[in-house]
Amino acid sequence: MPARAFLLALLAAVAGLLAVAAGASADALTPESGGSPNADDIDRLYKIVFVVAIVVFVGVEGTLLYSVLRFRARKGRIPAQIHGNTRLEIGWTVGATLVLAVITVITFIQLGKINDPQRSGPGGYAGSGRAVYASVDQPNPPGGEELDIEVNGQQFVWRFSYDIDRDGNTLNDPFTYEEMVVPANTTVTLDIVSQDVGHSWWIPKLGGKMDALPGYTNHTWFKARLKPGQQSTVYEGQCAELCGRNHANMLATVRVLPVPQFKAWLARQTQQIKQANTAAAGQAKALNPLQPTQKPAAPSQTGPEK
């Protein structure tokens, strides 16, 4: 086989493997959705813009093909010498402006539903209503019943801290690495931070990406679903910003449980944290008995390097 043919075959094979890789094509032409209302709204907005783009593409390319075929050069014919068409130029300028105006209006109509957290559904996990503002122009969820979780990006792991006492301080609250556990049908607000370099939080089926940057707190939300009779479901994602040599290993999952099972899981996590703090305080006192008794130290926020 000639070298050129072999190279083309190799490139075609690689392109085919990339196309069928898990998640490579998402929902083919639009983002993944189905896990949260804001993800569904993002997907719907993409589809609307895509349909408008198809209409414009067909119109422009159809006109171009018609002109090329209808007015193609023929032997013995002398083309008319036309220098511009004012009506035509005004027409396509106004048409393009209208298309952009329609897309802009539709986008701003949809942005409110994407950006603003919804109220937790019936039977959702009941928070105590701490006022959480997810951005300058994004209100806290209606009803004051939400679960707030700090998402901390670290090289190369995600740490999830549950602000169960609603005081804005998660240092002594239960936490997990890599897997976030949330209650179904509940608005979950995320405070996204970074401990070292730039990361990007993204669970495709639960909504859009959000950067985790040192020195800043970004915010997003989702309201995950369980199908009737389903006891749990898992949504997968990973860091979407090149953050170092082990970036590819910085995976994340969100496990959704019914509210009673979530409450039981959270109680176990809280108890384990308290036991670990008590044990750490006892060890510190044994190593240095002259030190005055102090409150148990909060668990380190530094995750394992993977």
How do you describe this structure in short?
The chain has helices at residues 3-20, 37-70, 86-115, 259-287; strands at 147-154, 157-162, 175-177, 179-183, 188-194, 199-201, 210-212, 218-222, 233-238, 251-257. With 306 residues, the chain is of the alpha+beta class.
Kindly describe this structure:
The chain has 306 residues and is α+β, with helices and mostly antiparallel strands. It folds into two domains: 23-72 and 86-115, no CATH class; 142-287, Cupredoxins -  blue copper proteins (Immunoglobulin-like, Sandwich). The chain has helices at residues 3-20, 37-70, 86-115, 259-287, and strands at residues 147-154, 157-162, 175-177, 179-183, 188-194, 199-201, 210-212, 218-222, 233-238, 251-257. The strands form three sheets. A five-stranded mixed β-sheet has the order 3-2-1-5-8. Helix 2 packs antiparallel against helix 3 (86-115). The longest helix is centred in the N-terminal third of the chain and has 34 residues, at 37-70.
Number of domains: 2
Task: Report the uncertain regions.
Answer: 128-137
Overall pLDDT, averaged? 79
Reported by name, the CATH topology of the largest domain is: Immunoglobulin-like
User: Quaternary arrangement of the chains shown?
Assistant: single chain
Write the CATH architecture name of the largest domain.
Sandwich
Helix content: 25-40%
Radius of gyration: 27 Å
Q: What separation lies between the terminal Cα atoms?
A: 43 Å
